[in-house]
From TrEMBL:
Every AMP-binding enzyme C-terminal domain range: 416-490
Example GO molecular function: acid-thiol ligase activity
Gene3D superfamilies: 3.30.300.30, N-terminal domain of ligase-like (3.40.50.12780)
InterPro entries in the record: AMP-bd_C, AMP-bd_C_sf, AMP-binding_CS, AMP-dep_synth/lig_dom, ANL_N_sf, ATP-dep_AMP-bd_enzyme
Region feature (Disordered): 108-133
Domain AMP-dependent synthetase/ligase: 17-365
Top-level taxon of the source organism: Bacteria
Pfam families named in the record: AMP-binding (PF00501), AMP-binding_C (PF13193)
Record protein name field: AMP-dependent synthetase
Amino acid sequence: MTEQFPGRLLDLLETAGHRPVFEHADRTVTAAELIGSVGRVTHGLRAHGIGPGDGVALLLGVSPEAFATIIAAHAVGARVVGVRPGLTARQRQHLLADTAFTVTDRTADTDAGTGTGTGMGMSTDTDTDTDRPGKVLALNDLLSAPHDGRRPLPQARPEDIARLIHTSGSTGVPKACAQTYAAMTEAWALRPEAWPPAVRALAARLDRFLVFGTLASQVMLEYGLLTLAAGGTLVTAGQPDLRDSIERHRATASVITVARLRKLTAGQRASPADLTTLRALMVSGSPLEPGRLREASDVLGPVVFHGYGQTETGMISMATPEDEPGSLGVPPVDLEIRDASGRPVPPGTDGELFVRTPGQSVGYWREPALTAEVFGDGWVRTRDLGRLDSEGRLWLTGRARDVIIVNANLYYAGPVERLLATHPSVAEAYVVGVPDDDTGEAVHAFVVPAEGHLPELRELRAWVTANLEEASAPTRLTLIDEAPLTPAGKPDKRRLSAGG
């Protein structure tokens, strides 16, 4: 029987020995040193009586010790909740509601209790004790616990909940996706023998992976584990500017949102930095328009990997720099495109995506009704719309719930946004429904102009009408410099609709 997560990672670190696996500030940490920190924190957690099924929240910066704490919490079999930056007080309290312990590296005066710093993109808000229900444990104290030097033995049972991964919360309070230890054990990151071609191509570029924000995030942890499995080193960002951090740390890879990719491309075009070490930027969080991808590739080279996945499922598919812009590559998981009645449709036909992945969640924590809507018969309903072409490549076309009702007819926002983004004067486009006295709702387009262009409503209406139905053409146009973002880095349409 395979030892539950993080057994395979601990095996990897034992084998790696004195190989550098982490660079933080002026320190280089070897695999042996990292596993020693895991052992001390594991012993400290067990001394507080923490074991399988206990809820543990992690309020940590970015450091080797923070990473060791994540692994130690899993070694004792806890139900781990990572607290990401940028949450409101209400959202943070919701995340911590079922946790008996909070591990933090912060003090009342600083976010750097163990020298972690806030890291790139880390919130500098000082959390109060009322934000941390249950017992608060200081990371420094856990690291000072005695340790016998032996490798920790994972205690979890396969069916135990390993972590609660929270959605972006863009519609209010984040939903908690419950992932079991069995799912974490079967996930792809630590299993080179199971890497699909796109992941194998990415792994070869992860020599020096730049990490920031919080290592407890789903994306950062999975790519961090992949980096270690590929023989690479995790490097912490020493400053908030991604371009400067890549240059300073000679990073070969990092994660990036679409908005930050645009800024990186613009900055590099205006004043080139030495990014010759850069080999991979993993775009996540929102769709990447083909025009943006081509622009980034022209300036940065063939470095963009576009991942598609959900909090509920983990990675579903990934496009490499060799894939056609707009495509998400060939999904390495079970995937069906279904019509409104739930029947699979043939290649080339749009429908809703249903998937099965090795590391998917079992449902939403303490929300059985919502779980029944999304999880069923081993499949996860993504509520994304798309199609598979004749070669099995995935193309997304919108969100099943992102609709505008014009004259009692539903029009999906995704196809309109993608069509607008192909217009020569448009760099990015977002559409929302607005009240209309004649049609009930109408399309309001928010557009980031392409460089040197000034889009006009008349030409954009004609562009949409020529390719889609007239009812889906925008009746209002607002030019914006950039879209507002949610804390998870996704375009925030609610703020667009509200005027900012």
